[in-house]
Automatic annotation (TrEMBL):
InterPro entries: SecY, SecY/SEC61-alpha, SecY_CS, SecY_dom_sf. GO terms for cellular component: plasma membrane. Gene3D superfamilies: SecY subunit domain (1.10.3370.10). This is Protein translocase subunit SecY. The chain crosses the membrane at residues 12-35, 106-133, 153-170, 182-205, 217-241, 271-292, 312-333, 374-392, 404-423. The gene is secY. Keywords: Cell membrane, Membrane, Protein transport, Translocation, Transmembrane, Transmembrane helix, Transport. The keyword Protein transport applies. The lineage of its organism: Bacteria, Bacillati, Mycoplasmatota, Mollicutes, Mycoplasmataceae. It holds the Pfam family SecY.
Length: 463
């Protein structure tokens, strides 16, 4: 048993659950000054933002923007540190001290992205009729731009504060809890919304008026079972793709070629090296046109309808742009995630090589080509998984809650894997710790017994 006699693992589990409870309580409270008219997200982009924000957009809560501004800032800092800005490149290579400074820059850059994300989110939800605004004097305003400047600023500051509070909670989970805090917070929002999505899906299937009323409930249950079958089929497919790796064999200089496959060491490269990051980054970029449209709404009223018609995920043009961004960022971020230059240099220092490939530049070119070939499958697959729910909503007219959201399933799978790995590592560390304590106590007992026997021997001789 993993949990048996493992105090550290229990502490990590309860710490994670406690932080998630605080986060979910914050999600359920709507921000003051906002009147919630309906909870269903009619826009595919607002549904994506709700997903990446950990579910805070569902109630337009303090955690509406969630951690997505921080993730966007982190991606940009990582890109710029990849030999684009010299100072950031030096920090990336300077160990723990450089990592701390880069983290500080990331959190500072989060602030402007939080402002843009807040404006874009407010534009989306107010344009969809999900919310209206209530001033301090009690007046109801239909648009954000109709609010006084002070109240608009206060509302944006509350959303920004929610982003930094979410980041603080994620840091606690990463240090004291299980897995990566950012992934776990997003995962908690997805898990919390699953029952509501399943119930609304069943209600939608049961409300079909074309079916004979006598058999309506039976047919609705049958359709819902088929829906669950496809849902778990997609889940299994994503688990398989997420766990698939391309193994590159490695040999050690001076040991001769190893022919036994069991003894050969491999460099594993995932089928989706960039993970879910391209989807998050592409979704964040798709919010910016909405934010710009909201800012320029009074000066140019034609911008906002243009953005909603052509740059949203409910249009063919918007979906095409979104797919292209996901594929482009998959190729770009995979080379940041897997630093081929450092790998090739490290193989040369350790005396390792890939059979049939020369060390140095040839190894660099080979690894780069392997990652590009993997992305030729992984990047389009990720784009299809992310775009499919929006495409289904646009063509079939299905509600957002009924769409088989592949992005959410990918986050669920990666979060579950992280939790299991964290539990296993905590269990192994606890076992080694208990063994070391037992060994130390045995050594102390042996030392005490030896010293007491020496004293007895000395006293005997002296007597």
């Amino acid at each position: 048993m993993i949990f048996k006699g493992n105090r550290d693992t229990w502490i990590a589990v309860f710490s994670t659950l406690f932080i998630l409870c605080i986060f979910q309580i914050g999600i359920c409270v709507t921000v003051p000054g906002i009147v919630l008219n309906k909870t269903e997200q009619t826009s595919s982009l607002s549904q994506l933002l709700n997903l990446l924000g950990g579910g805070g957009l569902r109630k337009v809560s303090l955690f509406t923007t969630g951690i997505s501004p921080y993730i966007t800032a982190q991606i940009i800092i990582q890109m710029l540190s990849n030999d684009v800005i010299k100072h950031l490149s030096e920090l990336r290579k300077s160990g723990e001290r450089g990592r701390i400074k880069m983290e500080l820059y990331t959190r500072l850059l989060t602030f402007p992205f939080a402002i843009m994300t807040s404006l874009g989110t407010i534009s989306l939800v107010s344009g969809s009729g999900i919310i209206t605004f209530k001033t301090f004097s009690g007046e109801i305003k239909n648009t954000f731009s109709a609010l006084p400047l002070g109240e608009r600023t206060l509302l944006i500051l509350m959303f920004i504060a929610g982003t930094y509070i979410s980041l603080f909670l994620a840091d606690i989970i990463s240090k004291k809890g299980l897995g990566n805090g950012i992934t776990i917070l997003i995962m908690s929002g997805i898990v919390a919304s699953l029952p509501e999505n399943f119930i609304s899906t069943y209600n939608y299937l049961a409300s079909d008026k074309t079916v004979n009323p006598e058999h309506q409930q039976f047919i609705a249950i049958f359709k819902f079972i088929i829906y669950l079958f496809f849902y778990f089929l997609i889940l299994l497919l994503i688990v398989f793709i997420n766990g698939s790796v391309r193994k590159i064999p490695l040999q050690q200089t001076g040991q001769g070629l190893i022919t036994d496959r069991k003894k050969i060491s491999y460099l594993p490269i995932k089928l989706m090296p960039a993970g879910i990051i391209p989807v998050i980054f592409a979704g964040s970029i798709m919010v910016f046109p909405s934010a710009i449209g909201e800012l320029l709404k009074n000066k140019n009223p034609a911008i906002s309808p243009f953005v909603h018609e052509y740059l949203s995920l409910n249009s063919g043009v918007g979906l095409t742009i979104y797919s292209f961004l996901i594929i482009a960022f998959s190729f770009l971020y995979s080379h940041i995630q897997i630093n081929v230059e450092e790998l090739a240099r490290g193989f040369g220092k350790m005396g390792r090589f890939i059979p049939g490939v020369r060390s140095g530049q040839s190894t660099y070119n080979y690894l780069k080509s392997v990652i590009n070939r993997i992305n030729c499958f992984g990047a389009p697959f990720l784009a299809i998984v992310a775009v499919f729910p929006s495409f289904l909503n646009m063509t079939a007219g299905l509600p957002n809650s009924m769409s088989l959201g592949g992005t959410g399933i990918i986050i669920l799978v990666s979060g579950a894997i992280q939790i299991m790995e964290s539990i296993k590592s905590n269990s192994i560390a606890s076992k080694y710790k208990s063994k070391n304590i037992l060994l130390d106590s045995q050594i102390k007992q042996n030392t005490l017994s030896e010293s007491s026997s020496d004293n007895n021997a000395k006293s005997f001789y002296l007597w």
